[in-house]
User: What shape does this take?
Amino acid sequence: MSDMTSEADILSRLIGDIYDTALQPTLWRDVLKQASGFVGGSAAAVYSKNAVRKTGIERYHWNLDPAYDYFGRQARFDPVTVTQFTFAVEDIYSIADLIPYQEFLQTRVYKEWARPQGFVDHLAATLDKSATSFALFGIFRNEQQGLVDDEMRRRMRLIVPHVRRAALIGNVIDLGHDKSAMLVDALDTLTAGVFLVDARCGIVFANVAGQALLGEGHVLHASHGVLTMVDAQAGRAFRDAIEAAVGGDLAIGVRGIALPLSPQPDRRWLAHILPLTSGARQAAGLTYAAVAAVFVRKAALDTPSPMQTVARLYRLTPSELRVLVAIIEVGGVSAVAEALGISEATVKTHLQHLFEKTGLRRQTDLVKLIAGHANPLSD
Assistant: This one.
């Protein structure tokens, strides 16, 4: 019982600190250190990748050596990026879920980036994704800690929803460090609608964009000063989330993340809810007698990539998908083998499986297959 109590106390403090990063991004480094210790790792990062261009950016990190510069040197050779992209938001996956582990040990990413830093595994979760890019939260394991185990996965699941909410809200706010701590003075500059509400969903502050949304009345409106959703189901979920916010960070749990405000596909508006009842955010809440900040924005078009579409349609394995992507990007069997760090015989085996599943016979036909599933409305 004492162990569980200790874990609950640590988790409670960690979640509070995670939410504080939404207003104070400078806290991310310490939060990642805490998260790494809680989950059972030796380093951690929040980063994003483009699955098509094999590029990305590291937003925040703890205990990664910048001298190895993953995105500057290794990202374009990383064979797991495309497979990572196929996972859904909040899915959790280790190296072995992405690629046979012995294959991973032969890759340039392992030899030139992971091994020199002492890393042997990586447990990640997708925080958000678009048609071509995705954001991740990852924790790395060193040689002494060994490969990812069930206990690490269990603990990771406890914090991923909160990391996701903090990261999404932080992206919406994107304030300067000098203004973020109090959530004051800069809300009117945001394109997202922002509402500070009390325990009864009463509006105690609305920024310019929020007032415009109220005036339009398409997805939400103010009834006697209370923030109300046009859609009844969304309204119930919203009230439940605000009620939970009164109880603090742990009480809100996974509720309120990207809360849909309208069922109509042409009006896809989302609300993100940040408790203001504890941590560094409490000062902002007390200033306005508010229990939560509500950020309302239009959802991005969720269009699957051609790779995702083809992988699902033909039930490709992660290894087959990696070879397919490499065939398109670098060409022949020898070049693919070198890029993926596997033998030519292995490439030929996967290629044969691709032909069997798709009913095609030539590599050029595979390229045409992907092109044929491209979104005609994309850039």
Notes: Residues 175-182, 375-379 have pLDDT under 50 and may be disordered. The two ends are 56 Å apart (CA to CA). The chain has three domains: 2-173, 177-298, 306-372.
